[in-house]
């Protein structure tokens, strides 16, 4: 039997519709619009494309949005001063610094400079620490998107065996931490695998829910997946160019083979990807509400 395909585009649209309505309500009831600033340093094509997508989505949702384009050789102090300005700007509720930053800038120092109350990417150590103790202000966007995809696709997380392949600070570790919380939409038994894991397939074959964020094309093959498992493929790997000149993408999972064994699976593209920007917008909306002491 072929797996149900979890359509991230559809779920993302549904959440965006809810965000738009809530943003309109904030505007009419309190006269404020959620405000997002995206800061980009240099003109790395992938970063420019991500930031353009974020700005476009923010505008579509009726947010107040600002883009700061900084030159590649900007001094670190100037970037920190810019962040400080937006930390103090009451019209801005979310600050996003597009990564990676050029080598002469200390990325950690820059991320730490963002006010944790405006850290809509959820990468500030205060927010990661709060996530750990179950009191998150913001969830990092990709893990948050994964959890919402599972919940809104009616997949039982509570009590399930979740195996996460990958332990990055932006995907693997936070998603594992979120799903093991004693909370609704969580309460799973979670295992984290990485390159030090001795027998990867021993673990992946036990998973009711397998989340793969390794950045290795088709690393997960059908023999590594339990019959009926739910498979969430976070990987985005560029494996060539389409006839139209666009990047040809594939995930970390051998989709065609694994979909014959899984009960549900996310495609690449069109699975986790559309959720990430959407959760950034939800975090910004929630930051705006928090500024009004509404949530
Ligand atoms: P990352 O920082 O490179 O981390 C990859 C993790 O996978 C590491 O922990 C690594 O282990 C582990 N790993 C790599 N190969 C492995 C293998 N063969 N067996 C077991 N573990 C293995 O990557 P990331 O930032 O988390 O991103 C992962 C993927 O998700 C990438 O393809 C990225 O493009 C994609 N992504 C997508 C979105 C989205 O919105 N769709 C967002 C973020 C990331 P070690 O720690 O031992 O090295």
Describe the 3D structure.
The protein is 39% helix and 17% strand. It is an alpha/beta fold. A six-stranded parallel β-sheet has the order 1-11-8-7-5-6. Helix 1 packs parallel to helix 10 (273-291), helix 2 (45-60) packs across helix 10 (273-291) and helix 6 packs across helix 10 (273-291). The longest helix is centred in the first third of the chain and has 23 residues, at 8-30. The protein binds NADP nicotinamide-adenine-dinucleotide phosphate (NAP). NADP nicotinamide-adenine-dinucleotide phosphate binds next to helix 10.
What are its keywords?
295 residues; alpha/beta; Rossmann fold; six-stranded parallel sheet; 10 helices; 17% strand; globular; binds NADP nicotinamide-adenine-dinucleotide phosphate
In short:
The chain is an alpha/beta fold.
Helical content band:
25-40%
CATH class of the largest domain: Alpha Beta
Name the hetero compounds present. NADP nicotinamide-adenine-dinucleotide phosphate
Shape: globular
CATH topology (fold) name of the largest domain: Rossmann fold
Report on the biggest sheet.
6 strands, parallel
Mean pLDDT: 96
Return the string of H and E elements: EHEHEHEHHHEHEHEEEEHEH
Topology:
Layout: E1 4-5, H1 8-30, E2 35-41, H2 45-60, E3 64-70, H3 76-87, E4 94-97, H4 107-113, H5 125-132, H6 141-152, E5 161-165, H7 172-179, E6 189-193, H8 200-204, E7 209-212, E8 230-233, E9 237-241, E10 247-250, H9 255-258, E11 264-265, H10 273-291
Parallel strand pairs: 1-11, 2-3, 2-4, 5-6, 5-7, 7-8, 8-11
Antiparallel strand pairs: 9-10
Residues 142, 165-168, 170-172, 193-197, 200, 213-216, 219, 234-237, 272-273, 276 line the site of NADP nicotinamide-adenine-dinucleotide phosphate.
């Amino acid at each position: 039997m072929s797996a149900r395909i979890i359509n991230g585009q559809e779920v993302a649209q549904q959440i965006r519709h809810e965000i738009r309505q809530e943003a309109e309500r904030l505007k009419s009831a309190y006269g404020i619009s959620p405000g997002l600033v995206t800061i980009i340093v240099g003109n790395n094509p992938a970063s420019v494309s991500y930031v353009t997508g974020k700005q476009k989505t923010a505008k579509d949702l009726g947010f107040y949005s600002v883009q700061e384009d900084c030159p590649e050789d900007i001094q670190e102090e100037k970037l920190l001063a810019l962040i400080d300005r937006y930390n103090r700007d009451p019209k801005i509720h979310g600050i996003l610094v597009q990564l990676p930053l050029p080598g002469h800038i200390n990325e950690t120092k820059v991320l730490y400079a963002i006010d944790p109350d405006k850290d809509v990417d959820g990468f500030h150590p205060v927010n990661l620490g709060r996530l750990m103790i179950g009191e998150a202000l913001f969830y990092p966007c990709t893990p948050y998107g994964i959890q919402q995809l599972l919940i809104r696709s009616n997949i039982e997380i509570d009590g399930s065996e979740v195996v996460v392949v990958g332990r990055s600070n932006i995907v693997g570790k936070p998603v594992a931490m979120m799903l093991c919380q004693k909370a609704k939409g969580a309460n799973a038994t979670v295992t984290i695998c990485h390159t030090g894991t001795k027998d990867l397939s021993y673990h992946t074959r036990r998973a009711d829910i397998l989340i793969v964020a390794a950045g290795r094309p088709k690393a997960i093959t059908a023999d590594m997946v339990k019959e009926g498992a739910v498979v969430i493929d976070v990987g985005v790997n560029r494996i060539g160019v389409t006839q139209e000149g666009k990047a040809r993408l594939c995930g970390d999972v051998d989709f065609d083979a694994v979909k014959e064994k899984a009960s549900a699976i996310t495609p690449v593209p069109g699975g986790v990807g559309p959720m990430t920007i959407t959760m950034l917008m939800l975090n910004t909306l929630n930051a705006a509400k928090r500024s009004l002491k509404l949530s």
